[in-house]
Request: fold
Amino acid sequence: MAKFKIKIDTKKFEKQLNKQIEKIAFDKQKEIIKKQLGKGDNEMNILSDKEEQLLEIILNKYDGNESMIVNGSDDEIPPNMHRGLKSIFETLELYNYIGKYNFVLNGWFVILNKEGIDYFKKKGMRQELFEELADSEKELLKQIIEIERNDGDISEFLANKVNDDERDIVRGEIGVLKSNGLINVSWASNTVYNAVLTQPGRTYFEREEKYFKRMKESANNTYNFGNIYAEGSNVVIGDVINSYLNIDNSLTRIENRIDQECDQEDKQEMKELLEEAKEIVNNIKKSGAIGQKKSFFKKLTDHACKYGWLYAEIVNVIGTAVIGIIGGK
Reply:
């Protein structure tokens, strides 16, 4: 009887298996990120320098076609990015900045997503920038804005700055403003060739002023419980008269305001925050103690800038419950 030998190419099998595992892991990671974005946990995913550089190359080649298709060649991508280029493309796809990519002979093609087109504009509108930018970077942005207002030449101004004794520092400052979508800059012959303000850059200081004004108002609301006075043994806090019925009414009012005033993508998270506030109030009623709620108060303060009224209302309700315990209610 003839013997049959089965030869298995273990290396090929292992390579195929690794590809399948890699795809499963990538799809799972993409699913997790999409869920996070849906819950509003992350307003946007900030890319690394190389990822932003590749996205910028793609955007510079985009001609505005409705299909959002961009074709490019390998020599348009810096040599230091060739190794690991697939991983960079995958990250752009993972964060939904591109819908699809592929490599062709001596080149590549990409289908852009709207999120990718709006990336630098949205990055320039982030509130975090008001605290992230250094004073020197803000000062340079002020000068650029002033030059535009006076119909000056921003490109010439920055080129002169780059050519002075502090050119390395200025290059860094220009790079920060550019990477955050506050200015657009093209370089040639090792200096600034063309530079223009973007809308986020143009409105930066106006938005910054409003941001810190809201922060100040929110901080003041932390201690604002209305008109507090004592008359005999009765304690009155604004229009709340030592009654948990009023607290329940306040909670219902807050929930209605969430439905009416919060952005659609924020409503679920705001309602979850309100439910935590209800639990805290119930614990105060039962035990007379609040306990450690660091995560709750962090989430509450994180949303104070956008929904200052919600911050004030919840703090007011919890404060009223505490006063009720102090008053023996």
Notes: The first strand starts at residue 69 and ends at 73. The longest helix spans residues 10-39. Confidence is low (pLDDT under 50) at residues 38-42, 222-243. DSSP finds 15 helices and eight strands in the chain.
